[in-house]
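Hey all, quick one. A colleague (J.T.) asked me to put the arginine job into the tracker so the inputs and the structure tokens live in one place instead of scattered across chat threads. No bug as far as I know, just bookkeeping. Sequence used:
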Amino acid sequence: MPIVDRPPFRPTSAPPRTPDIAAVMADPEHFDVEYVINAYMDGHIGSVDKVVARQQWQDLVQVFLDIGLDVSVLRADEHLADLVFAANQSFPLRDGTRRVVLSQMAMPQRRPEVAHFRAFYEDAGFECLELPPNSVFEGMGDVLWHPGRRFAYAGWGFRTHRTALEPFADLIQAPVVALRLVDDRFYHLDTCLSPLDERCALYVRQAFDDAGLAAIHACFPDAVAVPVQEAARGFACNGVSVRGHFVVQRGCTFSAEVARSRGLEVVEVETSEFLKSGGSVGCLHIRLGEAL
Ligand code: ARG
């Protein structure tokens, strides 16, 4: 399958993928900021209020249940403070075959997390596909599906390596548009691109190079740039369009208005404890199109 810096054809000509029916989240019991591997964590070591974090996480679970996702929860591990960011350890193929690609985390602190997801998926009857050794790849933190299609966008430069994308595209058998990330506030693709519907995505202009911006506009004719402060402070682009709703950190007023204008129902949540670690709604779950 092609990996492209400039899309050769419209994502709308790609085959459909399975709809969002389930989500996996990881229990926040041992979530904290214990080390600094992104700009947001700096100054926040040991500062997470565990009680507040659990309440915010539980509220997000309830939002997903209310909009009709089946939510499964992974057990926490006392040695893995970032396990709660369930978007990062894997990437589901979404072709109806119960397969996922396992990540190879960039940071040593997070590498053991992947085994937990492997065990979870194997129990659920999923097949886990492996990239070749030394293919640094951070799952749905850096790769997003086009709404409704088997056509993917991959961010690289801070976590995921460009060289991982060729074998990745072969595994998922879908076109992958490679987008170079250039601003360390937007270290994962899901911090700076949020596909809303087949024609519209929210994105952060500062996060991409010119080729990336051209690709985003080619794939999303109605793409809208989010004010950089809303994306950095409020993690607006970590908001997710799911089952007719846009679930996003409270206070992202510009992004919420765009989502409303696209016909989505906006659901605001509070994720302040997780923002201390550089994560919000999108980072805290992974969506599947196959029942668990
Ligand atoms: N502290 C985590 C890290 O830096 C946050 C991960 C956020 N996840 C995401 N999908 N952007 O790895």
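Adding what we noticed when we looked at it: Helices lie at 50-66, 113-123, 139-142, 165-172, 210-219, 228-233, 253-261, 272-275. The pocket of arginine is lined by residues 37-38, 41, 82, 85, 87-88, 110, 141, 188, 190-191, 277-279, 282-283 (CB under 6 Å).
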